[in-house]
Amino acid sequence: MAPVNVATSAGQYPIHIEPGRLQRIAQSVPGNATRLVIISNPVVDGLYGAVLRQALAPLGKPVMTIIVPDGESFKSLDTLNTIYDRMLAEKLDRRAVILALGGGVIGDMAGFAAATYMRGIRYMQIPTTLLAQVDSSVGGKTAVNHPLGKNMIGAFYQPVSVDIDIDVLRTLPAREVSAGLAEVIKYGLILDAAFFEWCERNVAQLVALDADALAYAIGRCCELKAQVVSEDEKETGLRAILNLGHTFGHAIEAGLGFGTWLHGEAVACGLVQAAVLSGKVLDLPAEDIERVRQLVRAIGCPDVAPDLGQDSWLDLMQGDKKTEGGEIRYVLLPGIGQAVVQAAPLDKVQETLEETVGNVTIERESARARETIASGG
Ligand SMILES: NC(=O)c1ccc[n+]([C@@H]2O[C@H](COP(=O)([O-])OP(=O)(O)OC[C@H]3O[C@@H](n4cnc5c(N)ncnc54)[C@H](O)[C@@H]3O)[C@@H](O)[C@H]2O)c1
Ligand SMILES: O=C(O)C(=O)C[C@@H](O)[C@H](O)[C@H](O)COP(=O)(O)O
Ligand SMILES: [Zn+2]
């Protein structure tokens, strides 16, 4: 597939989507880079670090690797500080280039390190989860979490390239595949009804990591995200639609403690909650709400939200970045394939919470995910 280009205020950058791209990564490295800094975690570095370093060797540039602990709970200012410590101790200059090798946690944190080290150095996104390949590696949202909220400390800062190697998904655990598919569905819901229908028809192939289905889905999501980011890089308007399901989802992540539910699991549940609220506020037909619920279940993600208590739910959602003047703004669906961002009456939100919250634990949901995947549907 030809690269997908993302147009930004600082020029454009390519998204390369190719099996085996990791072996050809040298093609994306800026020629004047003085040093290369791989930022990864023990799991991903163990699987793909050696391949990456071997692919970089012909460039003859010094390569260093910074390993941070794995998991959402380490996407924090504390971990970021350990990255700065190493970079400063190594006296990296402004022409050093960071290579973010991992999922969205690594990509968001390494991107923020790049945005802030010496006021900004270049970085490359090398996403290794489905979620990172379809969403987080594109568009330049970089951040770490704060105990009081998700992605609260960050910057818009674009990478110089995104290199997607579909082959690396073969080692991804099933639960992470399900989580990544939540963001895939999101793209259909907000922008492309035909793509949503394609996801419904191809869900068994997607959960089974069929290479052709994955390549199509990753390419389509990257195209859709590139269009939105090119039009509204810093979320002054349109880009907020990419937050469908996230007002609810981020509340779940922060409310349960970061890492209890995966980001994609929380978003999947949030998609159902946003659809239910859309039914109440914008008359989204009941059959469309049911289609969202069924697809979320089919990818193996939870469709029942945890009981955080109504007050906590509202308090957490109040802290969302889309809130303006104290008014929570939600991404809502007038229909499948269309999205708007607006406030919603409190009683409709309360009804939505009453109808979508239940006595649910992620263990139960994960077991169902495994059963769904094993039965192929
Ligand atoms: N910047 C954005 O636009 C954006 C968009 C969506 C999500 N995000 C962020 O992304 C994060 C979630 O990312 P994620 O779902 O990739 O989670 P993650 O980065 O935690 O990765 C998931 C797990 O998979 C492992 N892993 C990664 N690649 C692997 C591979 N190829 N084989 C085996 N194991 C592998 C990781 O070590 C980790 O344990 C959240 O913090 C979320 O807020 C950001
Ligand atoms: O790229 C975007 O814009 C998104 O909103 C994509 C989301 O999937 C992603 O989770 C993002 O990090 C959420 O952004 P936030 O501004 O709500 O933290
Ligand atoms: Zn997301």
UniProtKB/TrEMBL annotation:
<feature type="binding site">
    <location>
        <begin position="104"/>
        <end position="108"/>
    </location>
    <ligand>
        <name>NAD(+)</name>
    </ligand>
</feature>
<dbReference type="GO" id="GO:0005737">
    <property type="term" value="C:cytoplasm"/>
</dbReference>
<comment type="pathway">
    <text>Metabolic intermediate biosynthesis; chorismate biosynthesis; chorismate from D-erythrose 4-phosphate and phosphoenolpyruvate: step 2/7.</text>
</comment>
<keyword id="KW-0456">Lyase</keyword>
<feature type="binding site">
    <location>
        <begin position="70"/>
        <end position="75"/>
    </location>
    <ligand>
        <name>NAD(+)</name>
    </ligand>
</feature>
<feature type="binding site">
    <location>
        <position position="150"/>
    </location>
    <ligand>
        <name>NAD(+)</name>
    </ligand>
</feature>
<keyword id="KW-0057">Aromatic amino acid biosynthesis</keyword>
<feature type="binding site">
    <location>
        <position position="183"/>
    </location>
    <ligand>
        <name>Zn(2+)</name>
    </ligand>
</feature>
<keyword id="KW-0028">Amino-acid biosynthesis</keyword>
<dbReference type="InterPro" id="IPR016037">
    <property type="entry name" value="DHQ_synth_AroB"/>
</dbReference>
<dbReference type="InterPro" id="IPR056179">
    <property type="entry name" value="DHQS_C"/>
</dbReference>
<feature type="transmembrane region" description="Helical">
    <location>
        <begin position="96"/>
        <end position="118"/>
    </location>
</feature>
<keyword id="KW-0170">Cobalt</keyword>
<dbReference type="InterPro" id="IPR030963">
    <property type="entry name" value="DHQ_synth_fam"/>
</dbReference>
<dbReference type="GO" id="GO:0009073">
    <property type="term" value="P:aromatic amino acid family biosynthetic process"/>
</dbReference>
<feature type="binding site">
    <location>
        <position position="141"/>
    </location>
    <ligand>
        <name>NAD(+)</name>
    </ligand>
</feature>
<dbReference type="Pfam" id="PF01761">
    <property type="entry name" value="DHQ_synthase"/>
</dbReference>
<dbReference type="GO" id="GO:0008652">
    <property type="term" value="P:amino acid biosynthetic process"/>
</dbReference>
<comment type="function">
    <text>Catalyzes the conversion of 3-deoxy-D-arabino-heptulosonate 7-phosphate (DAHP) to dehydroquinate (DHQ).</text>
</comment>
<dbReference type="GO" id="GO:0009423">
    <property type="term" value="P:chorismate biosynthetic process"/>
</dbReference>
<dbReference type="GO" id="GO:0046872">
    <property type="term" value="F:metal ion binding"/>
</dbReference>
<keyword id="KW-0520">NAD</keyword>
<keyword id="KW-0472">Membrane</keyword>
<keyword id="KW-0547">Nucleotide-binding</keyword>
<dbReference type="GO" id="GO:0003856">
    <property type="term" value="F:3-dehydroquinate synthase activity"/>
</dbReference>
<dbReference type="GO" id="GO:0000166">
    <property type="term" value="F:nucleotide binding"/>
</dbReference>
<keyword id="KW-0963">Cytoplasm</keyword>
<keyword id="KW-0862">Zinc</keyword>
<keyword id="KW-0479">Metal-binding</keyword>
<keyword id="KW-1133">Transmembrane helix</keyword>
<feature type="binding site">
    <location>
        <begin position="128"/>
        <end position="129"/>
    </location>
    <ligand>
        <name>NAD(+)</name>
    </ligand>
</feature>
<dbReference type="InterPro" id="IPR030960">
    <property type="entry name" value="DHQS/DOIS_N"/>
</dbReference>
<feature type="binding site">
    <location>
        <position position="246"/>
    </location>
    <ligand>
        <name>Zn(2+)</name>
    </ligand>
</feature>
<comment type="similarity">
    <text>Belongs to the sugar phosphate cyclases superfamily. Dehydroquinate synthase family.</text>
</comment>
<protein>
    <recommendedName>
        <fullName>3-dehydroquinate synthase</fullName>
        <ecNumber>4.2.3.4</ecNumber>
    </recommendedName>
</protein>
<feature type="domain" description="3-dehydroquinate synthase C-terminal">
    <location>
        <begin position="180"/>
        <end position="323"/>
    </location>
</feature>
<feature type="domain" description="3-dehydroquinate synthase N-terminal">
    <location>
        <begin position="66"/>
        <end position="178"/>
    </location>
</feature>
<keyword id="KW-0812">Transmembrane</keyword>
<dbReference type="InterPro" id="IPR050071">
    <property type="entry name" value="Dehydroquinate_synthase"/>
</dbReference>
<feature type="binding site">
    <location>
        <position position="263"/>
    </location>
    <ligand>
        <name>Zn(2+)</name>
    </ligand>
</feature>
<dbReference type="Pfam" id="PF24621">
    <property type="entry name" value="DHQS_C"/>
</dbReference>
